[in-house]
Amino acid sequence: MMKKFALVAAAAMLTTTVGFAAGARPAYAAAKVDCDAVMNEVNSGKHAKEVATDLNISTSSVYRCKRHAKAAAKAANKTSLQAMKTGKEPPMAPMAAPSSAMAAPSPAMAAPAMAPAAAASPK
User: Fold this and answer.
1) What are the pLDDT digits (tens) for 99-112?
2) What share of the chain is helix, strand, coil (3-state, %, to 5)?
């Protein structure tokens, strides 16, 4: 009876461990590295090792940012070439949703819109 209970408990622990391990997502450095800052440094003429030292990142992160920038430039060039062939403009990049401050016009912006109507009405 005790062996059976130990076996069931071990199986339950193993199942729980595997379940939690499968749900864990690995952390990638790409989300932690500011590739815009890296590319600004690279484009200013610094070497990868200097950029890595200045930004406290690894040199592989610098090379990864360079690779992503090259791929993005290639994709942008490809879409613009296709657009020239078809005579259409390249698609616009998706814009972020407007913030709540931009969604509602300020009273200062609403006043000029009301001014012509107020000026047209007789007093």
Assistant:
1) 544 555 555 555 55
2) 70, 0, 30
